Amino acid sequence: MKVFFGILLFLLLSHEKSWGSGVRFTKQPANQTVSQGNAARLGCAVRGVTEPDILWMKDGEKLYSTDQMFITLGEQHWETYHSVKSVQQQDAGQYWCEVEFDGGTFSSERAWLTVEGVPHFIQEPEDVATFPNVPFNLTCAAVGPPRPVEVLWWLGGVQGRESRLSPSVLHVPGVNTSVKFYCEAKNARGISVSRTGTVHIKVLPTAPVGLQVLSMVDDNATLSWEPGFTGHSALSACVVQVSMGSVQKWDFPQQEVLVPPHLHVLSGLRSHSNYSVRVSCVNEVGASPFSPWLNFQTPESEPTTAPRNLRFELSEQQLVLNWAELQEEELQGKLLAYKVQWSVGGESQEPLLFKENSAALSGGGRFFNASFQVSACTSVGCGPWSPPVLVLPASVQAQAQRSHMWVGLLLGLLLATVVGLLLTVLAHRRGKETQFGSAFKPAGPESLVSFRAAQSFNRTCADLQESTLDSLSINSDLKNKLQDVLIPERLLTLGLVLGKGEFGSVREAFLKAEDSSVQKVAVKVLKSDITASADIEQCLKEAAYMKDFHHPNVIQLIGVSLQRRPGQRLPIPMVVLPFMKHGDLHTFLLLSRLGDRPFDMSLQTLLQFMLDISRGMEHLSSRNIIHRDLAARNCMLNENMAVCVADFGLSKKIYSGDYYRQGSVSKLPVKWIALESLADNVYTTQTDVWAFGVTMWEIMTRGQTPYPGVENSEIYEYLIKGERLKKPPECRDDIYEIMHRCWSPVPKCRPSFQHLVGQLESLCLSLSPAPPLKEHLHYVNLEGDEEAGQCARAPGPEEVTAAGAPSWSVPWQHRSEDEERDWLIVGSEAALAIGGDYRYIIGPCGAPTEGEEQGGAGRRGGPMHISQEEDDLIINV
Asked: Domains in the chain, please, with CATH?
């Protein structure tokens, strides 16, 4: 019995941690291992406190919560929980709770929360710049749990060596062309794909751009420029060449400038003078070509010298003054006037201004014994005064000149005597100098450059050269594919903005052909503040996809142009598309219902819209293109009211297999995304079929937002329960059945686009032709990245053979409340057929499998984290 009570006491003491103050924990947080996306809950209970003041701690930091609740278990006995609805990797760590009471802090035992999921990269491969055939290493590291984590490398589209445990270092013996690379990390939960890096080959830099005179202060001019393409190697210095005058040759010593910053100060400039400068930059491969010459003129200043040789001729009638003209370099500006200042008897008179270098003053007698001085003036101010000249009659002047001559002669003799004595002394000292010195240095001009300050300049450099695809650092295959559709920028005239989006805008434009004819087009322009090569390459990839599309219901590419920007290395890519009169389908549907002049559309017209889209998507799927952003907003209406599928910003070409896996954070339209894409980031042609069903719902509701009343963050839980978009009012059952089959949880049970085209053609034929639409339809500009395009009218329903509209059963439709089941639990062959680690078991076309009945719910993984945004979803892998 004593042993029994001893064991019982030990268990109580181990369960309740207490202190002498009477505060003790009756429940401690426990270690937990949770799959990513599932919920986690940690509990803590304490006895001995009057008011609940329990804080949760994580890795030494306080966790603040505005909705923390306390449960009363008894008098001075409280319990609280810390819950995480969807656990992510950042939630992993050590947790405990603390109680502050009576001046002390009491802590519970510590528990670890471990998060299992697909591997998480802690080091992704970085871009590499190297010389041809020089070895280098690439590093990739990812962690679980679960462990182990294996890493597989892909270099230039070729799988590297066998997978190795993380971290992994790939040794590359060298390459001679630019290649792409990435790594895959795999554990028991799935696969994560790192960022795609690039191996760049170091080359010579291109010429600097944007050379300009940034500022002028005193006699200094500050030059600035932007480096051109650096050749994938850091620039070490730039060379500045300076020329004076209009002749563009560097006749001064060139000056080397360490960079960055890309600035240089030219000092000692001469005022009101023309200069030319150009710049070349150097990396470890060599020097770039020089930039074009920049011509500029320094501003005016005050003259530096006074007019020389002031003389006069005096008669009874007038006084004539003459002086020598100043040279251009002495004026330092444009001469406005010569200013003559004179005084009589020590009293200054009103100064006089003269345009020429002479002055005739009437009444010569009044200037007897007057003193004259002259100064040159520019727009900035007047220069120094010439020595004063005293006006005297000729006889007095001759006598004064003789007196001055004798005085000069005496001074000359005195000066000659002094100079002779100095030469004698120096000659005597010269004989005592050593072989290491010399008494005199040989006379000769010093190679100095004299400059003066500048405030303004003239820019007469050549126009910007037209950009080509060779000036961009893009994939060579992509460059070759777009070479024959490149449109010179000079042939495009941009006009009004039709729409704006996250990545740029769509503008109205006019395209001039070689025969001088003009065509109205729409131009998709990348944002000017996006200058990364990757963003430009993504925009050009979209154009490359469109180049191969030749179908009346898929937007047709006219060409690609590159808009050169002053001061920028990279141009702005512009995708040239046909102009669409009626804009995007979603705006058109909204106008029909909510515009200033609403109008009706027949069911025949709405079905024709659906048929046009299905035909376009059938063409895309036949070419192994996954659109990934099919919606009414990305379908365009031409002048004949034919619908073209557009906006391929998210599209992907499938090069192997039949699916594409998204491996990084992406911003995607959540309400159009298929269930398996939300769960596993896997995209197939069947996911486009799901989006087509949502687009059909948009057309039938004439532009309503899908899933009204359901938040973006709730979409996954809404769909996983078997819920779907409700049948729109006035929608026929057979039309709703078509869109409903597009939302099957088993991708292979969804109809193909070829099958959808046949069904919609049959429905169109079963209806009478629709009356023509009124002509009061206009293109409407909305905030969004609308495409513009033109396509020929698709064959109408009258061109298709008649067939009855079939009826289709939907075996997986939502059951009654008492039979409600979770349709996403893992494992059938239909699920595995499209690849990936799926978390559901469903029999072919919807029949639940035996594994689902026997506890598949226990194996169910939670969804990925979904954050609320308007019509978009952030999916974290």
From this structure: 15-116 (2.60.40.10), 120-201 (2.60.40.10), 209-297 (2.60.40.10), 311-397 (2.60.40.10), 469-578 (3.30.200.20), 585-874 (1.10.510.10)
Residue for token digits 């000769």? Answer: 444
Structure-block tokens of residue 700:
């039938």
pLDDT score, position 693: 96
Task: Place 331 in a pLDDT band, splitting at 50, 70 and 90.
Answer: confident
Structure token pair of residue 91: 């939630």
Does this model's pTM top 0.70? My answer is no
CB 510 within 8 A of CB 519: yes
Residue type, 752: S
Please give the single-letter amino acid code of residue 425: V
Catalytic residues: 629
Dist. CA 568–CA 228, nearest whole Å? 8
- Interatomic CA distance for residues 351 and 339, integer angstroms: 7
Q: What share of the chain is helix, strand, coil (3-state, %, to 5)?
A: 25, 30, 45
Q: What is the mean pLDDT of the chain?
A: 76
**Rounded Cα distance, 538 and 557, in Å:** 16
pLDDT at 735: 94
**Burial grade of 315 (CB within 10 A; 0-12, 13-18, 19 or more):** exposed
Q: Which of 578, 527, 600, 538 is nearest to 776 (CA)?
A: 600
- Taken as a whole, the chain contains a residue count of 877
Residue 449 has a pLDDT of 38
State the amino acid at position 841 in one-letter form. I
Least Cα distance to 700 among 738, 743, 747 occurs for 738
Residues 6 or more apart from 405 whose CB is under 8 A from it?
Answer: none
- Output DSSP code: residue 630: -
Residue with tokens 């005297």: 392
Q: Which residues contact 667 (CB under 8 A, 6 or more apart)?
A: 869, 872, 873, 874
Structure tokens at 321: 């003054």
Count Cα neighbours of 79 within 13 Å in the Cβ-side half-sphere.
Answer: 11
Q: At what angle do helices 685-700 and 733-741 cross, to 10 degrees?
A: 150
pLDDT of residue 189: 83
Euclidean distance between CA atoms 96 and 109, whole angstroms = 6
CB 524 within 8 A of CB 506: yes
Burial class (CB in 10 A: 0-12, 13-18, 19+), 70: middle
pLDDT digits (tens, 9 = 90+) for 574-627: 888 888 888 889 989 998 888 888 888 899 999 999 999 999 999 989 888 888
Mean pLDDT of 772-782: 41
Count Cβ atoms within 10 A of the Cβ of residue 264 and give its class: 0-12 exposed, 13-18 middle, 19 or more buried: buried
